[in-house]
Amino acid sequence: MNRYYFDHNATTPVLPEVLEAYTRVARDVFGNASSIHHAGQDARRELDRARTDAAKLLGAGPKDVVFCGSGTEADNTALFGALRRTSPGHLVTTTIEHPAILQTAAQLQREGSTVTYVPVGADGIVDPDDVRRAIRTDTVLISVMHVNNEIGTIQPVREIARIARDHGVLMHSDGVQAAGRIPVNIEDSGIDLYSVSAHKLYAPKGIGALVVRKGVNISPLLFGGRHESGRRAGTENVPGAVALGAAAAVAARDLISESERVSVLRQRMEQAILARIPDVRINGFHALRAPNTSSVCIDGIEGEAVVIALDLKGFCVSSGAACSSGAVEPSHVLTAIGLSRRDARSCIRISLGRSNTPEQVDSLVDALVACTARLRKLSPDYAAHA
Question: What is the topology classification, in CATH, of domain 16-250?
Answer without folding.
Answer: Aspartate Aminotransferase; domain 2 (3.40.640)
